């Protein structure tokens, strides 16, 4: 890896990211059931019906894992907190062991000189709230605000940064329209409501955290570059529609108080009554925007009902996920986020690759992927985007949602039998230049 810290702006933050359900082990410490547990228990949803009940057993191996982050020389650790661990029923009484765990996590990071960057929701919705309609329910922002207050009252004073929701597109569209993630719905009305309520919940949580005096609050969205599969007008329109749904709906809501026309043409009849009045909440001022980026999509028009598009397999080399490797896309989405977020710092809050690693073979493919994407970050900086940090997904191999345990994103290999952690070559390469 030829890059050094000197190749990036002063005070640029390097880090690694994980999420609660993917690593902690939800079967421990009094965490409540989540909609991912029931989704995974339903045949056909998740590879081999695997779930996160044990995952990486991070809950019981916290110090070992924090030492791995320190060993990397990371400035920042982006983790998520599980609503169901903090409040097993989603509302009401907190789980003392859950709050203690997150306090140990934050204090353990600070003791090692690492900045804690928390995300409040990375997809494991408490089952009792899913039973009440989950993100379709207009009370969700209210419940989410209560959870935010309960947790942040305990750890908010020691966080470096916080963001309410990881990837609103996945919470809304992927989970309620495509049905690929929990709760596995395929319903346009549910989708519209979930996409809107998730943004309202974001705004409410920002308000709660501001009232607690917290600083450095942001939003983490995922982006894909959408390119037409051909030059035809129909494919270009379809690609623009995909871009509007995937990227601009959330940016538009957060920064402009408006949803793109290309999305409203399908979703407007299904949005909750009075949705326009919620933009005052959704637009709560932010301190930064986070960009999660993995790939691009080639989009073709299809016959049939809105949104009338289909993904076409592209020609570029692909990761284990089957995602095309397209580093220039990172430069493009950083520019897009900047276009909406004005002068706010932009962080790459996730980027990385799944690769069929073994402990004996150096993961040079991952080091190459990360290097190419870090070069794209440099190009975005040269374009004038105030990119302030870059966090690799992920610290260690973990539960990759519907694909179970065989997609390996980690800088650290995890043996899911013995749970032994083994740093990979990519970890060593980063550690060489991240250490100050
Ligand atoms: C992102 C998710 C993260 C992980 C990566 C591969 O969309 O935020 O949990 O699954 O993709």
* Major sheet size, sense and barrel closure: 9 strands, mixed
Number of helices: 15
Report the structural category: alpha/beta
Radius of gyration: 20 Å
Q: Care to count the β-strands?
A: 11
* 3D shape: globular
Overview features:
15 helices; 40% helix; 11 strands; two-stranded antiparallel ribbon; globular; 436 residues; alpha/beta; binds beta-D-fucopyranose
What do you see in this structure?
- With 436 residues, this protein is α/β, with parallel strands linked by helices.
- Helix content is 40%, strand content 16%.
- It is built from 15 helices and 11 strands.
- The strands form 2 sheets. Strands 1, 2, 3, 4, 5, 6, 7, 8 and 9 form a 9-stranded mixed sheet that branches. A two-stranded antiparallel sheet has the order 10-11.
- Beta-D-fucopyranose (FCB) binds next to loops.
In short:
The chain has 436 residues and is an alpha/beta fold. Helix content is 40%, strand content 16%. Strands 1, 2, 3, 4, 5, 6, 7, 8 and 9 form a nine-stranded mixed beta sheet that branches. Strands 10-11 form a two-stranded antiparallel sheet.
Write the SSE topology:
Elements lengths: L12 E5 L2 H4 L11 H6 L21 H11 L3 E5 L2 H4 L9 H16 L3 E7 L5 H5 L8 H16 L5 E5 L2 H9 L11 H24 L6 E11 L4 H24 L4 H7 L11 H4 L5 E14 L7 E4 L15 H14 L4 E5 L13 H20 L3 E7 L18 E3 L6 E3 L1 H10 L2
Parallel strand pairs: 1-2, 1-9, 2-3, 3-4, 5-6, 6-8, 8-9
Antiparallel strand pairs: 6-7, 10-11
Helix pairs in contact: 7-9, 8-9, 13-14
The structure holds beta-D-fucopyranose (FCB).
């Amino acid at each position: 890896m030829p890059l050094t810290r000197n190749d990036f702006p002063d005070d640029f933050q390097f880090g690694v990211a994980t999420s609660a359900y993917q690593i902690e082990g939800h079967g421990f410490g009094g965490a409540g059931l989540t909609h991912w547990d029931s989704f995974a228990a339903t045949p056909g949803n998740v590879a081999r019906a695997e779930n996160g009940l044990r995952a990486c057993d991070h809950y019981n191996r916290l110090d070992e894992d924090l030492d791995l982050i320190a060993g990397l020389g990371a400035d920042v650790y982006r983790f998520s907190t599980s609503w169901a661990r903090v409040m097993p029923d989603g509302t009401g009484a907190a789980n003392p062991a859950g709050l203690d765990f997150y306090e140990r996590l934050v204090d353990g990071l600070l003791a090692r000189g690492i900045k804690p960057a928390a995300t409040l929701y990375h997809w494991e919705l408490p089952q009792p709230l899913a039973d009440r309609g989950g993100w379709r329910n207009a009370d969700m922002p209210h419940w989410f605000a209560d959870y935010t207050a309960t947790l942040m009252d305990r750890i908010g004073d020691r966080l470096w940064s916080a963001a309410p929701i990881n990837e609103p597109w996945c919470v809304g569209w992927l989970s309620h329209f495509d049905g690929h993630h929990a709760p596995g719905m395929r319903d346009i009305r549910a989708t519209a409501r979930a996409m809107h309520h998730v943004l309202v919940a974001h705004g409410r949580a920002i308000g709660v955290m501001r009232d607690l005096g917290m600083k450095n609050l942001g939003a983490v969205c995922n982006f894909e570059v959408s390119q037409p599969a051909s030059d035809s007008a129909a494919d270009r329109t379809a690609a623009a529609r995909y871009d509007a749904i995937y990227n601009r709906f959330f940016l538009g809501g957060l920064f402009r108080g408006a949803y793109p026309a290309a999305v409203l043409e399908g979703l407007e009849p299904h949005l909750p009554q009075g949705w326009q009045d919620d933009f005052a909440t959704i637009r709560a001022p932010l301190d930064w925007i986070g960009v999660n980026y993995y790939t691009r999509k080639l989009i073709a028009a299809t016959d049939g009902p809105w949104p009338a598009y289909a993904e076409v397999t592209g020609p570029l080399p692909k990761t284990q996920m089957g995602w095309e490797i397209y580093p220039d896309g990172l430069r493009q989405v950083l520019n897009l986020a900047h276009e909406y977020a004005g002068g706010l710092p932009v962080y790459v809050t996730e980027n990385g690759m799944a690769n069929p690693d073994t402990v004996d073979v150096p993961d040079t493919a991952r080091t190459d992927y990360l290097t190419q994407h870090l070069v794209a970050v440099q190009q975005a900086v040269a374009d004038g985007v105030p990119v302030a940090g870059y966090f690799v997904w992920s610290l260690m191999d973990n539960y990759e949602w519907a694909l179970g345990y065989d997609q390996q994103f980690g800088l650290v290999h995890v043996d899911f039998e013995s749970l032994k952690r083994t740093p990979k070559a990519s970890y060593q390469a980063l550690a060489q230049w991240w250490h100050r």
